[in-house]
């Protein structure tokens, strides 16, 4: 029974973190006290007419994109909370090994300012010059980096089922910067 619970916990945590990023907004968001990571050198992608409707989740995040973080099961493409999602779950050799789920969620009708506080506040970021927000939480443990696309949409990079929030956010920022943001439409 314990093994079953350990196997299902990362999946449940990932689903809860993704569900926490719906378009309703609760909690109190506060600005970051320190300077947020600013990465890359792309020109600023100002919101506007860009759209996510032609994007495909498992094209934004592929199996080869996650191999640097370990061995992962095949990508799972689904719709969750109105978002088109692609996620990869790390293969574990035993129950004591750290798990990890890395996913991307395309939200055609959820602007950047609709990111929910999942427990640790929402902070502003710049990812390759693009406006972004980061939300993390301890229950479930995970982190989302949301990338603004146009005025009405965003793409979320989610990392759950790791040992610390800091690690989840580090990986989410890395995937957002190096993998997902360069594939998004500008403008």
Structure overview:
- This protein has one domain: Protein Transport Mog1p, Chain A.
- By secondary structure, it is of the alpha+beta class.
- The chain has an eight-stranded mixed beta sheet with strand order 1-5-6-7-8-4-3-2, with helices on both faces.
- The chain has four helices and eight strands.
List the helices and strands and how they pair.
Layout: H1 2-19, E1 38-39, H2 57-60, H3 63-66, E2 76-80, E3 83-89, E4 101-107, E5 122-127, E6 130-138, E7 141-149, E8 153-160, H4 165-180
Parallel strand pairs: 1-5
Antiparallel strand pairs: 2-3, 3-4, 4-8, 5-6, 6-7, 7-8
Task: State the main characteristics.
globular; Protein Transport Mog1p, Chain A; alpha+beta; 187 residues; disordered N terminus; eight-stranded mixed β-sheet; 8 strands
- The residue ranges in which pLDDT falls below 50 over 5 or more consecutive positions are 1-47
Mean pLDDT: 80
Number of helices: 4
In the CATH hierarchy, what is the architecture at level 2? 3-Layer(aba) Sandwich
Summarize this entry quickly.
The protein has 187 residues and is α+β, with helices and mostly antiparallel strands. It has 4 helices and 8 strands. The longest helix has 18 residues, at 2-19.
